[in-house]
User: Which sequence fits this backbone?
């Protein structure tokens, strides 16, 4: 990943009309954007479309980016908005089919490898459980608990009220917990 | 207070941004079942946070397709203009060649018609 200062510099250059700087930003952020898009729409092809739309909008709206938030956060908001629009348009299924597992990479494998290994199973179960959630619930928990977007921003991007976003988050967390820790597994959690 | 009532609040307090009501907090302090549930939520949130550094690797073509889609219109225009210019020059060259060939044919026919007849 490109360092934050370098990203800021590229953003300034891109805002000044340097297209190559914007291309560098795309190179530096596309995997992150794609990952979020994939987590939101649950399908590789759809995620590609969302990513393309995201960068087209970002390119068009870059001059309006004031730098109050990080560029990545700004991009996450656009991605969330595009994915929401995409899902609304798609709206053809009551629930998404479980996709095949896409290849994943850990950006910080050097950090606490033992802990990471023991968490590996939980994370793969969690990824599966996330994909099984209805898209509306999944979007909120992904944006809040993985990408740390505030409730008001999530509500904005998804076109819902803040209280609706909180209710969805509550339901999503509850479903995930029930999926990962079925009844009788409480002793295990207590030991953690 | 019953576990079911406290349980409704546990999903919200697990991230540390909100607090339990005093009554629910008193229940939680003595209820192993609710404590276990809260521990599950906290573990769940830690696992969710850890997904932030896990990337889904996109198809290799994605970046190329993105850069292609984002190519500024000016480049496309320049490309079209260059192609148009090449076509224009090519057209002129073809027309000139055809014209020259036509002139040669006409000149040669005229020359053939102007030759003096040998027959009397």
Assistant:
């Amino acid at each position: 990943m490109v360092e934050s200062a370098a990203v800021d510099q590229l953003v300034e250059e891109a805002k000044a009309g340097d297209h190559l700087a914007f291309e560098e930003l795309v190179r530096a952020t596309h995997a992150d954007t794609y990952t979020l898009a994939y987590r939101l729409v649950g399908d590789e092809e759809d995620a590609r479309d969302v990513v393309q739309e995201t960068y087209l909008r970002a390119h068009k709206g870059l001059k309006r980016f004031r730098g109050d938030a990080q560029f990545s956060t700004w991009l996450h908001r656009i991605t969330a908005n595009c994915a929401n629009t995409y899902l609304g348009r798609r709206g053809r299924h009551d629930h998404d089919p479980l996709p095949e597992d896409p290849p994943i990479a850990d950006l910080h494998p050097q950090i606490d490898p033992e802990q990471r290994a023991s968490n590996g199973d939980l994370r793969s179960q969690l990824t599966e459980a996330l994909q099984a959630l209805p898209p509306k619930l999944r979007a909120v928990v992904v944006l809040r608990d993985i990408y740390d977007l505030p409730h008001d921003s999530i509500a904005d991007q998804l076109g819902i009220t803040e209280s609706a976003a909180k209710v969805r988050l509550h339901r999503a967390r509850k479903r995930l917990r029930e999926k990962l820790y079925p009844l009788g597994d409480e002793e295990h959690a207590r030991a953690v | 207070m019953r576990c079911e009532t406290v349980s409704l609040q546990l999903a919200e307090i697990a991230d540390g941004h909100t607090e339990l009501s005093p009554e629910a907090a008193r229940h939680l302090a003595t209820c192993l079942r609710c404590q276990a549930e809260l521990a599950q939520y906290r573990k769940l949130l830690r696992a969710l946070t850890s997904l932030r550094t896990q990337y889904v690797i996109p198809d290799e073509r994605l970046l190329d397709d993105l850069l292609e889609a984002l190519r500024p219109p000016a480049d496309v225009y320049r490309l079209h203009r260059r192609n148009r210019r090449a076509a224009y020059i090519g057209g002129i060259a073809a027309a000139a060649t055809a014209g020259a060939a036509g002139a040669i044919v006409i000149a040669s026919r005229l020359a053939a018609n102007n030759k003096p007849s040998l027959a009397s």
